Amino acid sequence: MTQLIAIIRGVEAENILEITEGLLEAGVDTLEVSLSNEQQGLECIRTIKIAYGNQLNLGAGTVISEQQADKALEAGATFLITPGWDKELAKYILSKDVPIFPGVFSPGEIMQAASLGIETVKLFPVSDLGSSFIKNVKGPFPNMKFMAVGGVTHNNIAELKNAGCSYFAIGSDLVPRGATKKDKEKIKKNAEGYIKLLEEV
């Protein structure tokens, strides 16, 4: 999985292949398709899976129930991301032998995730938590990997990486909400810019 994860939200399935192509050309091979619009998200996952299933890591985000988890896996998702901490949902997803990156916002939630054997958690919204929080929780959780989500931009990605984040999931600043085929080159350029920033840190 690359350090950079593209969050796809509000994109119609008819536009998703060109967007995926642009991301792959830039070197981004990990996509999170949000289920905030469940039907739209599932259609995108199915479409990507058929065309590029062997070329990328395809996940579903904004998973809030066992039913959604099942639907996403049936559509072709290979990992699941939740917006917040739900121990029972996390245990259910783990029982499917599927990687889960649960949203957390406190040391207590990180500790609960660690107790289930989860190795990477999503700090969300990371713009509210800040780099000092990340540095502080790295102490008691030195083996936990952190995925920065929510407010990651060109201006703070280096700071977040230096604070201890391993992965960076970026939404509208990388793939605009409701993007279409016409946005392919813009998205590719966005991705290349972020990759360059991460390489320079």
TrEMBL record:
GO terms for molecular function: lyase activity. This is Aldolase. Gene3D superfamilies: Aldolase class I. Pfam families: Aldolase (PF01081). Pathway: Carbohydrate acid metabolism. Keywords: Carbohydrate metabolism, Lyase. Homotrimer. Belongs to the KHG/KDPG aldolase family. It comes from the Bacteria. CDD domains: KDPG_aldolase. InterPro entries: Aldlse_KDPG_KHG, Aldolase_TIM. It comes from Oceanobacillus sojae. The keyword RNA-binding does not apply.
